[in-house]
Design goal:
The chain is α/β, with parallel strands linked by helices. About 35% of the residues lie in helices and about 25% in strands. The radius of gyration is 24 Å and the shape is elongated. GO terms for molecular function: FMN binding; metal ion binding; phosphopantothenate--cysteine ligase activity; phosphopantothenoylcysteine decarboxylase activity. Pathway: Cofactor biosynthesis; coenzyme A biosynthesis; CoA from (R)-pantothenate: step 3/5; Cofactor biosynthesis; coenzyme A biosynthesis; CoA from (R)-pantothenate: step 2/5. One of its GO terms (cellular component) is phosphopantothenoylcysteine decarboxylase complex.
């Protein structure tokens, strides 16, 4: 899986930097080309000469390697690479990556990277457990980076706990699995995500609690497996996953227009958005004022995106619907599956605490047209996305 792959290996100032030598040998043995970018602090732990000898490439550390006008282009590295691996990655570098502090060659290379990025943290247990580090790691994950979890064990400080960089064999295996998955979903995938807002007047709207996290996680997973992903997003404040074409909309009508526009050319369509069923018959051009009388607003149905796409679905297209239920979950979701002419439907329930709207977790059941149901345990939406995409790969 790594034969001919271009890998940028970032090395930072950690005692675990010595493991980078083994990591390089394993990557090259698997057929990869490796270009090292090391921070100034990293050179205190492993020498550029050693790294260059192993990679057969000059080790890059500074923007300007000579005083003759030549320089190292982080942009070129971002275009050359099939993936970037930062191992070991210190708490300092993690913080800089999360907040775009481009003060060395490694960070500028990361910010210019067009390919997948893997991060293998290495630090003392208290540093790893600190809320700021955990928040920065969550931020990096939200950008589409993969965190290769550190191990528990004896640390350089003499303490024992979680913070040891994952072993080189584990890291290489993770990257190989990524490239194996990357080529497994060469499809055009259309995804809707988030809520829709239906305007009442210039300052008020009717909406729902959808965060868009589930749809964005699915988009990231599809893109990671090689799909050409178009994501139609309602009004949410989430970073766009890597290699995803994002279209922002606000209303159900706008989402309908974009979904019907891109659907004919899509191989797979996943409708995870929480689209409003009703909109206002009349929308005021000026702010509605409080009066002593009750305010009456007339609602009319919105266009049914799932039903419209299901009606026009071709034999070679796959349509996945979502059903968020409050009661009679299986019955209602199965009925929706048939009505919308979906291939399968992802059901979740508001009755399970800590899932669905605004949560980072979800618990789903996938229902197929033949009546088969597959229930899953509660897990992170990132892992739920993997279950859904696995179901797609099995279905096709």
């Amino acid at each position: 899986m790594l034969k001919g792959k271009h890998i940028v290996l970032g090395i930072t100032g950690s005692i675990a930097a010595y493991k980078a030598c083994t990591l390089i040998r394993l990557l090259i043995k698997a057929g990869a080309e490796v270009q090292v970018v090391i921070t100034p602090a990293g050179k205190e732990f492993v020498t550029p000469l050693t790294l260059s000898t192993l990679t057969r490439k000059p080790t890059i550390s500074e923007f300007f390697s000579q005083r003759d006008g030549t320089w190292n282009s982080h942009v070129d590295l971002g275009l050359w690479a099939d993936c970037m691996l930062i191992a070991p990655c210190t708490a300092s570098t993690i913080g800089k990556m999360a907040h775009g502090v481009a003060d060395n060659m490694l960070i500028t290379t990361y910010l210019s990277m067009k390919a997948k990025v893997f991060v293998a943290p290495a630090m003392d247990l208290d540093m790893f457990a600190h809320p700021s580090t955990q928040q920065n790691l969550s931020t990096l994950q939200s950008y589409g980076n993969t965190i290769i979890e550190p191990q528990s064990g004896f640390l350089a400080s003499g303490l024992e706990g979680k913070g040891r960089m994952a072993e080189p064999e584990t890291i290489v295996d993770t990257i190989e699995q990524y490239f194996q998955h990357q080529s497994s979903l060469k499809k055009r995938v259309l995804i809707t995500a988030g809520p829709t807002f239906e305007k009442i007047d210039p300052v008020r709207f009717m909406g729902n609690y959808s965060s868009g996290k589930m749809g964005f996680a699915i988009a990231a997973e599809c893109a990671a497996r090689g799909a050409d992903v178009t994501l139609i997003a309602g009004p949410v404040h989430l970073p766009t996953p890597q290699n995803v074409h994002r279209i922002d909309v606000e209303s159900a009508e706008q989402m309908y227009e974009q979904a019907t526009k891109y659907f004919p050319e899509s191989d797979i369509t996943i409708l995870s958005a929480a689209v409003a069923d009703f909109t206002f018959e009349q929308k005021s051009d000026s702010k509605l004022k409080r009066t002593h009388d009750n305010l009456e607003l007339s609602l009319i149905p919105t266009k049914d995106i799932a039903a419209s796409l299901g009606k026009n679905k071709k034999a070679n297209q796959v349509l996945v619907a979502f059903a968020l239920e409050t009661d009679h979950e299986l019955e209602n979701a199965t009925n929706k599956l048939i009505r919308k002419n979906a291939d399968f439907i992802v059901m979740n329930s508001t009755q399970i605490p800590g899932t669905t709207f605004q949560s980072d977790d979800n618990q789903i059941t996938i229902i197929y047209r033949n009546g088969e149901c597959k229930a899953f345990e509660k897990k992170s939406k990132k892992d739920v996305a993997k279950d859904i995409v696995n179901a797609l790969e099995d279905y096709k």
